[in-house]
Design goal:
two-stranded antiparallel sheet, 82 residues, 4 helices, Arc Repressor Mutant, subunit A, mainly alpha, 5% strand
């Protein structure tokens, strides 16, 4: 069994972004993430930045709701589907 590369809270943020996009067809706002996970907006932003640095999510600078699963995250999801 493959060990999860993300700590619990980072994984929760990643999973929420992935699920929200699949269900809503758009990326969640930082407020959506914070409210859903019952964390502060600043904390949500920190987790998003960590996920970006690790290559799990990406966004377009200056564009709202542009979070998307990228690189390492997309590869992890593909492996889980096999």
């Amino acid at each position: 069994m493959k060990q999860n590369p993300l700590p619990f809270q980072q994984q929760a943020v990643y999973d929420f972004i992935e699920r929200y996009h699949a269900e809503q067809g758009i990326a969640p706002s930082v407020r959506d993430i914070a409210d859903s996970l019952q964390i502060g907006v600043t904390t949500a932003r920190v987790y998003i930045e960590i996920l970006k640095a690790k290559g799990f999510v990406a966004s377009t600078e200056g564009v709202r709701r542009s979070l998307r699963i990228a690189g390492a995250g997309a590869e992890q999801g593909a492996e889980q589907c096999r």
